[in-house]
Amino acid sequence: MAQLRITPLHPSLGAEVAGVDLSAPIDEQTRQELNRALADHLALVFRDQSLTPAQYLAAASAFGPPMEQHYSQHNMPDFPLIGLIWHRNGQQPA
To answer: Is the dihedral of CA 18, 62, 13, 89 positive or negative?
Structure first.
């Protein structure tokens, strides 16, 4: 099991999660701790992770099945379960 460290970022919202490599499979106990942290803090920040789209989907699945994106024109090519967002001035993600 990963040695998770959950650090609140603000008293009412958000926490930073350290001690987990999201590019690797997540064991059941870590998945449960991450879900508890999300329920407690409503938003989680994972710094310094470098994930392929497939690894991103696997990590996101620790919180439940990914939802299909309704605006398919904003989906990542070859990965319809990943929606892309960009700045409102039209700057697209790299």
So the answer is: positive
* pLDDT band at residue 92 under the 50/70/90 scheme: low
Between strands 15-18 and 44-46, the pairing is: parallel
State residue 91's pLDDT score: 62
Tokens 């942290």 belong to residue: 37
* Ordered strands of the 5-8 beta sheet: 5-8, 15-18, 44-46
The region that residue 56 occupies, defined by phi over 0 for left and psi between -120 and 50 for alpha, beta otherwise, is: alpha
Could you give the CA distance from residue 49 to residue 16 in angstroms, rounded to a whole number? 12
